[in-house]
Amino acid sequence: MNQIFEDNLRELARSLPNIHKALLPEIEKFKTQPQGDAEESFGWVEEPGRPVNLKYKRRVPAFEGLYHDRELERELRQVFKDIDLNYPQLVFFFGIGLGHALFHFWKNRPPRNKAILILERNPQIFLRSLCVYSYQDLFARPDVHIVVNSPVASSVESLNRFLSQFTTTSRHLKIIACPSAIKTEGEFYSAVGSHIVKMRDLITIGTGNSVQDQFIGVENLLANVQEGLKNQGIAKLRGLFEGKTIISIAAGPSARHHWERIRSLQDRVPLVACDVLLREMNRQRIEPDFVCALERVPLVASFFDQVPVPERTSLVGPLLLHPDVFKKFQGRKLIYNPGSLGFGFYGLSRLHDFYPGSSAGNLNFAFAKHLGFKNVILVGQDLSFGLDNSMSHTPGTGLETQERALTPEEIKERSGGRRVETQDGLDEVPTTFVWNIFREQIEVMQGLYPDDRLINTSPKGAKIRGAELMSLEEAIEEFVTEDLSIWKDFQHIYTEVTQEAYEERLQDFMYCANSVIDRLEHWAEKAQKIEEKIKKWKSHIEDREQRNRKPSLAFLDDCLNEVLYLKTQAVNHDPAFHLGFLQQISPAHLAFERELNAMPGSYKDNYLLKRDFLLKHENYFAVWNQWIPVLLEGLKNCRSALSKT
What we know:
By secondary structure, this protein is α/β, with parallel strands linked by helices. It contains 27 helices and 18 strands.
């Protein structure tokens, strides 16, 4: 233990309090038994001219020796042998030892590196690494996730959360493994690692259905840039209400039973509600502290059309909301940057990159945890059709097609026959594929806070793993033990951006936008030319094959080299293009890369493989040529509008 360790520990407690709390017994063990015990023992090894090492002995599985190669450079060469640090990537550290490989990577990481997940099974090894390097910058970064001393199931949940937040737009997933960690915990790392590729693909499918779908969010975001530049964001709100209780109100059919009781709790417990409920809560004379909106469609704006906004109520939502939402909600706005679209590159990460799941109800929960609330009481989070009334939503939302009772045939059609266990475990209730995704996202998020309480007051809603079933009365009796009215204090905490800060942000955005516009124009010309070339090559190949005179492999190699050189230069070596455009076409790009990766195993003829590999790029560059002009126009219009301000 030394000053580096103490500084790291303070930052860990500040930035990652849940990890710090979970490690407290291990920290105490480290301080009282620095040499270890009969199961595993440790000894520092310091030699002149060599990095610090660790003499490590473990009983099961048996291990004895230096934790790192005495010639550390040799170990680092082996660890990084097949890893090109110039590629954009998601990086997974499987074991970190004393941190030598991690900080070698950190020093040499590419500027467009996406995010890092650090997974260390052995807490005592992790704590000793805190004596060697300063982790303070890493602990504070939202794009660095750390998992320590977590079993396989919880580690996989953390992996799910990580990949959900940082959906990759290329196949460059890098695992950097500490050799001794693999020797001593190989079964653990193998079990977790087996989930990575499959989970990445499933999440990509779930979060980006099509390029056209993706561009709805992009166009909204560009229209909302000024709102973002003027907003403080949500970063400074993190942990404000640590240890407190909040009620999260979703629009499931069971919410209708609780309005009167919730009204009586005004100024006693904070309330966060879904966007679609504000109109009904007005009628019920209930003023939520926060209203959460997530969807990009114009329908969301109608939820606030001519709806009075209480002074205490703040809107929470991403920049990709439809612009009319910000116009029609006449109140305080707490805006975050949707990390999945990659617009942090434009300086918008100041708002805080945030992944709340895929529904307003999930945003309720995620934002409550961001604010530090320890106990979350769910009301109306049914995630199913009502067992007693066959409705999907509570009355008063204005969504007529979702508030009426459905026939058994209609429910079967919408649910596809899916049924899940109810929270009380006594019945099964019909649900949908999408609601199951919402439920699983809540379960993953709750898994990050194993010591916090999640209360579900809907006994006949879908069972949420990690939630406890209580009636609202029981939850109030146990958790609302003191009054907490937050809105007056909140007004002083949250201030508007100064004109000076706005102008600085505007300059940053314009610089980045100009960089992307420049690179888009550069690659647009090349993409058009290469698509035309591929069409000519295709015609040439078809003509030669019809005359039984196939082109040579050398010809195909030359064509492939030209295509792949252009693609890799744009995708892997141009950060402005990668972050400015490739993120936006991620569904098509990832599907294309998966298709290419699957080809070698399904071909026996080398000529056919190279021919088809080449010709598939025609449609790929057609996607570029379809969407680069759309993004260019959006960025130029945004730049023009901001210039006028």
